[in-house]
From TrEMBL:
<dbReference type="InterPro" id="IPR022885">
    <property type="entry name" value="NDH1_su_D/H"/>
</dbReference>
<keyword id="KW-0874">Quinone</keyword>
<dbReference type="GO" id="GO:0050136">
    <property type="term" value="F:NADH dehydrogenase (quinone) (non-electrogenic) activity"/>
</dbReference>
<comment type="function">
    <text>NDH-1 shuttles electrons from NADH, via FMN and iron-sulfur (Fe-S) centers, to quinones in the respiratory chain. The immediate electron acceptor for the enzyme in this species is believed to be a menaquinone. Couples the redox reaction to proton translocation (for every two electrons transferred, four hydrogen ions are translocated across the cytoplasmic membrane), and thus conserves the redox energy in a proton gradient.</text>
</comment>
<keyword id="KW-1003">Cell membrane</keyword>
<feature type="domain" description="NADH-quinone oxidoreductase subunit D">
    <location>
        <begin position="151"/>
        <end position="324"/>
    </location>
</feature>
<feature type="domain" description="NADH-quinone oxidoreductase subunit D">
    <location>
        <begin position="326"/>
        <end position="400"/>
    </location>
</feature>
<dbReference type="InterPro" id="IPR029014">
    <property type="entry name" value="NiFe-Hase_large"/>
</dbReference>
<keyword id="KW-0472">Membrane</keyword>
<dbReference type="GO" id="GO:0051287">
    <property type="term" value="F:NAD binding"/>
</dbReference>
<comment type="similarity">
    <text>Belongs to the complex I 49 kDa subunit family.</text>
</comment>
<dbReference type="InterPro" id="IPR001135">
    <property type="entry name" value="NADH_Q_OxRdtase_suD"/>
</dbReference>
<comment type="subunit">
    <text>NDH-1 is composed of 14 different subunits. Subunits NuoB, C, D, E, F, and G constitute the peripheral sector of the complex.</text>
</comment>
<dbReference type="GO" id="GO:0048038">
    <property type="term" value="F:quinone binding"/>
</dbReference>
<keyword id="KW-1278">Translocase</keyword>
<dbReference type="Pfam" id="PF00346">
    <property type="entry name" value="Complex1_49kDa"/>
</dbReference>
<keyword id="KW-0520">NAD</keyword>
């Protein structure tokens, strides 16, 4: 949809002695080329992810201004948190980034456990770490397949979904859900693992690891993909920091920050030798894809390390016994995690009731997408889809 103003090319006056007539010519052709065009991409458009709207001001084929307009999927999640108890919140929290459901649940229960001063059984800590990394791989595989699709490459998404299905089977077996796992609980996890599950999980990890080179060769070895992404959409590190951009997008611009290493939680402090924070300095679309691909490989290594550690642990509980009515003590806390798309934080304020007084969600995609305001001006309209796709966001994670 384009919004253009009426352009006047001039006024001609003809005098024939006794009378004068004024003739106005309205130009809609060549004169319009000098007029900026306002172009709305979205909220429902083949060139956008979901229902994000971009308001672009164009100067010919180049973007001169860009404004991301969000809120079309807003459901008031933070207010819904306030009228549900701490057990019920989990079912809402895992839905804003539907590709990172386990990680979303984790942030809520970590915040409540911190308020309660609760220690989680060691077995639950390692299981949570394992499942968080498997969820990270599932998230990344979706974007590794869908990003080439947005640039015209159809085949990679079939390979990506083949690898995803290997992990989906074991995640569904352990939790009962394919997208919304609902497996975290305040104090640990819902249930013990099914018999023989760790062996099946290890085989699934091996299958995905064997399939990653196929995706890498198919995409990174394609000269058309490289031409569309190298040097396109460069995000400067100072802009990333100013807008609070985190996760793979920030690390592709050289922002070397990862909560798993810099403020370890769960079992990440004991996985420092396996954990590798992948960075690039180019900051372009190609760098963002490369970071995502390498980070996926490292998450598989972390999953194997967790499985090794679980094999060494003696049998034990995976959760704490809780009172029938769970109330957090009066106070406030902030818990943040390194979600697949970046930093996800929960600011919890309690007045000693069974529901939170306030629960503020800081989602990764919301901050990340704001950087488009700085990034898109000066780029070609033809490159907009490549840039937008490389930001790896989920619209529900923006709108909340």
């Amino acid at each position: 949809m384009a919004e253009t103003g009426t352009a006047q090319t001039g006024t001609a006056a003809a005098f024939d002695g006794a009378s004068a007539a004024t003739h106005t010519t309205v130009g809609v052709g060549g004169a319009a080329e000098s007029t900026d065009m306002v172009l709305n991409i979205g909220p429902q458009h083949p060139s956008t992810h979901g229902v994000l709207r971009l308001r672009l001001v164009l100067d010919g084929e180049r973007i001169s201004e860009a404004e991301p307009i969000v809120g079309y999927m807003h459901r008031g999640a933070e207010k819904l948190f306030e009228v549900r108890d701490y057990r019920q919140i989990v079912v809402l929290a895992n839905r804003h980034d539907w590709l990172s459901a386990f990680a979303n649940e984790l942030g809520v229960v970590l915040a409540v456990e911190r308020m309660l001063g609760m220690e989680v059984p060691e077995r639950a800590v390692w299981l949570r770490t394992l499942l968080a990394e498997l969820n990270r791989v599932l998230n990344h595989l979706m974007f590794l397949g869908s990003y080439p699709l947005e640039l015209g490459g159809l085949t990679p998404i079939f390979y990506a979904f083949t690898e995803r299905e290997s992990l989906q089977r074991v995640m569904e077996e352990v939790s009962g859900g394919r997208m919304h796992y609902m497996f975290n609980r305040v104090g640990g996890l819902k249930d013990e693992l099914p018999a023989g599950w760790t062996g099946r999980a290890r085989r699934a990890v091996a299958e995905v690891r064997a399939g990653l080179p196929r995706i890498s060769e198919l995409v990174l070895g394609n000269e058309v993909f490289r031409a569309r992404t190298r040097g396109v959409g460069v995000l400067r590190p100072e802009v990333a920091r100013a807008y609070g951009v985190t996760g793979p997008i920030a690390r592709a611009s050289g922002v070397d920050f990862d909560l798993r290493r810099d403020e370890p939680y769960l079992a990440y402090g004991e996985l420092s030798e396996t954990l590798r924070v992948v960075t690039r300095t180019a900051g372009d679309c190609l760098a963002r894809f490369e970071v995502l691909l390498e980070q996926t490989s490292n998450s598989l290594d972390l999953a194997d390390a967790c499985l090794d550690r679980l094999a060494e642990l003696p049998p034990g509980p995976v959760n704490q016994r809780l009172p029938k009515v769970l109330k957090a003590p009066e106070g406030a806390t902030y818990a943040w995690t390194e979600n697949p798309l970046g930093v996800n934080g929960y600011y919890l304020v309690s007045k000693g009731e069974k529901t939170p007084h306030r629960l503020k969600l800081r989602s990764a995609s919301f901050n990340n997408i704001q950087a488009l305001r700085e990034l898109l001006p000066g780029t070609l309209v033809a490159d907009m889809v490549a840039i937008l796709g490389s930001f790896f966001f989920v619209v529900g994670d923006i709108d909340k």
